[in-house]
Amino acid sequence: GVNKFYLKIGNANIDVLDFIKISGSRGGYKFGNLESGFDFNNYLLNQGINEQIYAKNIVKIFDFPINPNSYKSYILAKIDDENVKNLVGGMIFGQFDYETSFGKQIRLLNLTLLFSMTGIYLNYVLFTLSKIFSYKLSDKKSDYLALVVFLPFLLFNITRFTTIKVVTFYIFRLINKYNLENYYSKLDRIAILGVIFVILDPFIVFQMEFYLSFLIMILFNYSYLFF
Questions:
Q1: Which of 166, 155, 89 is nearest to 126 (CA)?
Q2: Which residue of 134, 195, 196, 225 is most buried, as measured by CB atoms within 10 A?
Q3: Is the pTM of this model over 0.90?
Q4: For the chain (length 227 residues), average pLDDT per consecutive 10?
């Protein structure tokens, strides 16, 4: 079956999309609560993780040629302004530093968090790219070219549900538009993909990115009633 485990990798040189072989044992875990009240045990359970692997040895058997985390660090290191770095890191990579004064303002307003969780700005990027390409290409070619240009961003955020959701919805929209002649309405697509996500990972219902983004999409779908 497909299982999730908590694993401490220490100083092991492991990045996203690498394949590793682990020697060790599996068992339960127990972590204390942080001073902020954050319950890490409950967090892991909500991710569908109820066991920990106690590794004796970790061997990398396939090193993915592109290391997303290394490139993220490289890009952020090029930005000198800490506020800009925090904003770029949060909006693009979902990595906010809430210990800075700017980060505390972001947390207080919750606006950037809302955008990063729902992927509203990612949809805007995709449709803007498609619009730009449409000046020279047909609608179909421009829509698919926008997806191709956007794929590297998906690679750098392959573990973020928000990015996966935006790309999946965009692909489904293209298939529905060009292959199914708009057979499914937008609400149909939201429902179908929502069910598929839950089947693939039932614990996703505990993640704020899931229910918040789907709720906002449904509200947007009915926003025409207010205008």
A1: 166
A2: 134
A3: no
A4: 84 85 91 77 88 92 84 82 77 70 67 67 88 93 94 83 90 94 92 93 85 84 75
